Amino acid sequence: MGNWRKSSYSDGSGGQCVETASGDGVVRVRDTTDRAAFTLIVSEAAWSAFLGTLR
């Protein structure tokens, strides 16, 4: 899965950066400052519900 998208809320100085990628029914979330580290994987339904609580 190589279609990562950087959050529009990430700051321009390289800090607080998050990327997401979706496909195969899941969403992957990672820290852009350490891409080789842990990647959170959740279902698309769970991600949608999470985003709904933020709006």
List how many beta strands DSSP finds. 4
Q: What's the story with the biggest beta sheet?
A: 4 strands, antiparallel
Poorly predicted runs: none
* Count of alpha and pi helical runs: 1
Mean pLDDT: 86
Shape: globular
Output the radius of gyration: 11 Å
Number of domains: 1
First CA to last CA: what distance? 27 Å
Structural description of this entry:
This protein has one helix at 44-54, and strands at residues 5-6, 18-23, 26-31, 40-43. It is globular and about 30 Å long. A four-stranded antiparallel sheet has the order 1-2-3-4. It has one domain (5-54). Helices cover 20% and strands 33% of the residues. It is an alpha+beta fold and 55 residues long. It has one helix and four strands, in the order ββββα.
Write the layout of secondary structure elements.
Blueprint: E1 5-6, E2 18-23, E3 26-31, E4 40-43, H1 44-54
Q: What are the defining features of this structure?
A:
4 strands, 55 residues, alpha+beta, 20% helix
Q: Summed up, what is this model?
A:
The protein is built from one helix and four strands, in the order ββββα. It has 55 residues and is α+β, with helices and mostly antiparallel strands.
